[in-house]
Amino acid sequence: MIAPSRGLLLRIYVVSMAQLLLVAGVITLTGWLLFKFDPNSPFMNEARYTVAQLAERAHEPALLQRELERVAQLTGAHVSVYGAHGRLLGSNVTPALDRLQQQEAHGPPPGMFGSGPDEPPVHVFPLDAADPRRGYAVYSRGRPPRPPATPALWALGAALIGAALATVVLARSFVSPLSELASAAEKLGAGDLSARVRSGRKDEFGQLAQTFDDMADRLTQVLRSQQELLANVSHELRTPLARIRVAIDIASEGDASAAQEALGEITEDLGELERLVSDVLQTAKLDLAAGRAGGALPRLRNTAVDVRALAETAAQRFRSAYPGRTLQLELGDALPTLQADQVLLRRAIDNLLANARAYSDDDAAITLRVHASEAQLEIEVVDRGIGIAAEDLLNVSKPFFRTDKSRARRTGGLGLGLSLSRRIVEAHAGELAIASELGKGTTVRITLPA
Description:
By secondary structure, the protein is α+β, with helices and mostly antiparallel strands. Helices cover about 50% and strands about 15% of the residues. Helix 1 (about 5-35) runs antiparallel to helix 4 (about 150-190) and helix 7 crosses helix 8.
């Protein structure tokens, strides 16, 4: 497995710490701004109330001093009260807070004046808002006690360590599934078709892993289908070509009667080669058409198709090709005329009849049944052959899949018949369904919109 990236861990850690510092800075700045500038802040309201209480006792120095000391005990505020002409009346801090050389003739206007960089802001409030010349109070909240340096450093270190541990856990929760996915992709790219992530996670990483596994399954199926195609094509081509070569060799030796006897088999072999090439080309054509349209259905050459005539022609073609087989044709009443691609639709029916012949005994009858309702047309091909196993029903319509892996000449083929028929039916906005039971036979039903 690929090791977690230290760069990713570091980036997540730096981003996390930057976020913590940003939040702390914003909170600190907001509190400072509210404390310093907001005239309606709790601090300012408290200061105005305190100054109002002190103004009531400004004419009695003893009461004023007791009130100043009580304010210092309750709120920690530093207050110095001045009378007319800047005379100090009382203060709870030594030295008294100074207004910095105010012009006594005009009196100090209310507001805040500067202090040192390490000092809290100092505010000035008139004792009487109606007559500021009667006096004023210099008010400061006072410096809050500073925590000891060593515990603060320990707290900062603990916060950094905690953030680092949380960051590592978070980063590994990201890196670990990504590393598993990268490792599986690397193995799959190297040719290991069994490489899968198989993650049990239920989050987005689990969905990504499941998507990768599904893609790998489809890719594996395509590659195996190609291998199956090569094996099937090599076998299907070898037998008729060998027969044709033998017939040519016999004819070249001058034995005309033996060559004449081989002509029938040569004709049959050439027909098989023609069907084989036609199936491969038609399947590739439908795949390419669907791919160019982004998964849409291929363009059809629709014409008015007489369903009754189509079924009778298919039956006649089958009986001519296999004169020893019994085909029962059952046609319903009032069959409609379809707008369809007659060549492709006939090809789909021919493929189904050919499959029914290949997988049933010579003396078993095959039924081609066509009937219609108001909404749809159904075409059924029923055989009484070997049937299809339940585990093969899901795969039987896939390209190149064959239930008979022996590739016997009787059931030979590329496994394209049902797949091609299904694609043709779906191109006509229809459905193809298969019902089968081992030893009893198979029914393939085509449903088309009428």
